[in-house]
Amino acid sequence: MSDAPKTVPPAASPAAALAEPTQRVRASWTAGVVGVNWGINTVFFAPINVLIGLQATAIDAPNKEAILSLVTAFGAFVSLVANPLSGALSDRTTSRFGRRRPWVLGGALVVVVALLIMSGATTVAIMVAGWCLVQAGANAMYAAIYAAIPDRVPLEQRGLVGGLAAMGQTLGILTGAAVGFVIAGNVPFGYLLCAGILVLSVLVYVFRGDDPALPRDAVGRFEWRKFLAGFWISPVKYPDFGWAWLTRFLMFVGNQLTIVYLLFFLTDVIQHPDPAGGVLILTGAYAVTVVITTVIAGKWSDRAGKRRVFVAGSSAMIACAAVIMAFAPTFPAALVGAVVLGAGFGAYLAVDFALLTQVLPSSASRGKDLGVINIAASLPQVIAPTLAFLAVTYFGGYRTMFIVAAAIGLLAAVLVYRIKSVP
């Protein structure tokens, strides 16, 4: 990627904000996108993987799984609304700072306040309230930063930029695991550390992001009925969008099932002497392979001009990782599973995002449409913990949970070929 200035239409022109991009983005712009993704995923995964689990154990150890599932499920319900709503509102934002940057900055401020609430939570009710607020702010950021990619990145560069954005996600997951390890059980400090990381993560995009303003006269009159109706995207009228949504949903359910009870799996099944340290090791192995495969697969798919074969192959790899965890419940096998999972999910994140941008119905509603797509990533946060709880508690334990994850991943690999407009 070049840092040379690019020529864009004047910021006051609707074409600058709504036209299909043709100029390659600068490295500094991409670094800003990667940074925001790093921060968002740090504040997602440090609590999900470690902090909420430790709080749940401190509040009611015998029911820690149920508390974790309850808190994450409520937060996921909030994300189902916050992501597409924020995306749709960012589509209509006419700030002189652009359509997306105000939502990244505003969402970050909300998350910081929410993390402060979480740091002092001593009851399940406060945990639920704080986590819902985290989800609201973080999903506003998430919707805006992902809409910025098809706003500014040309089609032939989206696999690479999507891969680098996915690398930011992975760095956030790794940072979240590191936070859980270094705090040595000091949960309030962990939340404060997440807040500091989030503030740092948004600085480059907020101050260097290329985000042309949308003139007021380019936005039609606001009508509630029309606005709300826009969230329904007919799978009959846009079948490829519908299949892309479904395969993404299945992939995220399978992935979430594999990782949601990782701390408890290491504690109760593998009986690792340092579960938080084990989470860090597994997440580190996962992160390294994700970073490698996101960049390689994204760039490779750009050059090949193909997306579906990469998505199908990565789905199958995620299924293999779940099978390994199901039938070899030892830490060395879990380490192999983490590497396979990272390789598959890294390739998936990079290529599937590029595929998704090619099936969006309209350039004027990218934020809203990607928000609807992101429901497919948020809804599994409700579905997967519930499935995991039922599998572990009533239907055979962790092996059943991982087998279900594998079956779902394989189904996603098959269904991606129902998308016809993308090779």
From TrEMBL:
It is found in: Cell membrane. GO terms for cellular component: plasma membrane. Residues 197-423 form the Major facilitator superfamily (MFS) profile domain. Keywords: Membrane, Transmembrane, Transmembrane helix. SUPFAM superfamilies: MFS general substrate transporter. GO terms for molecular function: transmembrane transporter activity. This is MFS transporter. It comes from Neomicrococcus aestuarii.
